[in-house]
Write a structure and sequence with these properties.
single chain; alpha+beta; Histidine-containing Protein, Chain: A; Lipocalin; 2 domains; 8-stranded antiparallel β-sheet; 4-stranded mixed β-sheet; 2 helices; about 20% helix; rod-shaped
């Protein structure tokens, strides 16, 4: 009786060992089968996945390239004979070579740089005097102020607006003698102020003289040009009619030139036109 009991226990132990061996062999077989099927499937063959099985519980870990590959791999594991449970720990990480690459950003479009405004030589600059000038009282080198009477445009852009401040200088002033000699008054512009910035300018001079017996002449000088820079039309006179024709409607050289003892006088608010003898360059912002 005792011998039979011992033999029965031995057989039970041996059976347990055999079952354990069979389980381990089954887990190994599950791993091999899943890996082989994943390698053969078109959807999962490029996945970098590790398969582990313990007592029928299959654990999947590693990287797959697409959600579809992840689902297919889990399906393969679940359908494998002997699989009791599937723990999917894989992550989706697309292959850098297959990932859709965004096109490189387009280079920024450079806006054309604004160009400076160049007022060419020969442009007429019409101004209105802010003070009276006289061949008798004005002195050479004396500064006078004026404002731009008509805007100056270049290629459709206003370069010098009406109302801009202009300064000039008395180039020469000579009082006329009572019996001989001639009176002379010569003017030129030197600066213009646009939007708070002052720019040097060069203009031809306006010269007006009164000679013996009251004969009066007027001209522009500089750069070989004479006449043409005067706006006689502002007072009804002709082109080149002289400073006397520029002082405004009804106003001429005060005192007239018939008696021979009067001076060249230009009242305040008189309109005069000068020609630029050199180009004037203004910044783009002007």
């Amino acid at each position: 009786m005792h011998k039979h009991l011992t033999l029965s226990v031995f057989l039970v132990v041996l059976l347990g060992i055999s079952i354990g061996c069979n389980n381990r062999a089954s887990d190994e077989q599950i791993q091999k089968d899943i890996q082989a099927k994943a390698a053969a499937d078109a959807e999962t063959k490029d996945s970098d996945v590790t398969v582990a099985s313990k007592k029928g519980k299959v654990t999947l870990s590693g990287k797959v390239r697409t959600p579809a590959a992840q689902q297919k791999l889990e399906q393969i594991a679940r359908e494998e004979p002997g699989t009791a449970e599937v723990d999917d720990q894989t992550s989706i990480e697309p292959d850098a070579t297959q990932a859709v690459q965004a096109p490189p950003p387009a280079p920024p479009v450079e806006k054309p740089k604004p160009q400076p405004i160049i007022v060419p030589a020969g442009t007429a600059l019409t101004v209105r005097l802010g003070q009276a000038l006289s061949s008798k009282t004005s002195q050479p080198g004396q500064t006078f102020l004026a404002t731009v009477a008509q805007p100056v445009s270049v290629e459709g852009r206003t370069a010098i607006p009406a109302g801009a401040t202009v300064s000039g200088t008395v180039v020469n002033a000579k009082a006329k003698g009572k019996f001989k000699g001639e009176g002379e008054l010569t003017l030129a512009l030197t600066n213009v102020t646009v939007k708070g910035h002052t720019y040097s300018i060069q203009t031809q001079t306006l010269e007006n003289t009164v000679k013996g017996k009251g004969k009066r002449t007027a001209a522009t000088t500089g750069g070989g040009a004479a006449g043409g820079a005067l706006i006689g039309g502002l007072a009804g006179g002709g082109k080149g009619a002289g400073i006397g024709a520029l002082v405004g409607a009804g106003a001429g050289l005060m005192g007239g030139a018939m008696t021979g003892n009067k001076q060249i006088e230009i009242p305040a608010e008189s309109a005069l036109s000068f020609q630029l003898s050199a180009p004037l360059t203004l910044p783009p912002g002007q």
